[in-house]
Design brief:
single chain; about 180 residues; DUF1189; transmembrane helix; DUF1189 domain-containing protein; membrane; transmembrane
Length: about 180
């Protein structure tokens, strides 16, 4: 699947989210990197537009600021990309752990590796909520809580399409033989 197909399906197709558990890990990792790159670019553009006001508010001499000027923007972008990538991977891992609990509650069958792939793609909308919160001047009230709730809802809906757990076999109770 192409990036735009994964992106579109992440919004409103829980059945495909569940099917994404079977994608190769490389495809999911590529999706994450492209998605994080796009969000980092948007955040970096906001930083670049507001950096002048931040820099002018410092007490550093102008000579020192001119010395670090050429390194400021590339360094900021690389740092922002790395932090966003680590943050996204940690969020996907935590969401997959929550999904393990959901599997037990819903009596579905799956493994952590499947849940991680599903949760990594289902974090698209929650990440966009946080990005909008960052980009909008007034922000979004309770954006972190809203983002976490959206992630859990998307995972819950996707788990509805996971296979059912096999029923537990009951052991027949055989009384001890008398000899």
């Amino acid at each position: 699947m192409k990036f735009h197909q994964l992106f579109k399906a992440a919004f409103h197709e829980p059945k495909k989210l569940a099917a994404f558990r079977m994608l190769p890990l490389g495809k999911v990792v590529r999706y994450i990197f492209v998605f994080v790159l796009l969000t980092a670019l948007l955040s970096f553009i906001k930083f670049a537009l507001t950096a002048d006001t931040v820099i002018s508010g410092t007490d550093m001499p102008v000579e020192e600021l001119k010395g670090i000027g050429p390194l400021l923007y590339p360094g900021a972008f690389v740092l922002q990309f790395l932090i966003a990538t680590v943050y996204f991977y940690v969020k996907a891992s935590i969401a997959a752990l929550a999904g393990l609990g959901f599997l037990k509650v819903r009596k579905k069958r799956g493994e952590y590796r499947h849940l991680w792939r599903t949760s990594a793609i289902s974090l698209t909308v929650p990440t966009l909520i946080l990005l909008l919160d960052d980009l909008l001047p007034s922000g979004i009230p309770y954006a972190s809580a809203l983002s976490a709730a959206a992630a859990l809802v998307y995972i819950w809906l996707a788990l509805g399409y996971y296979p059912n757990a096999a029923p537990k076999k009951r052991m027949a109770h055989n009384p001890p033989s008398r000899s």
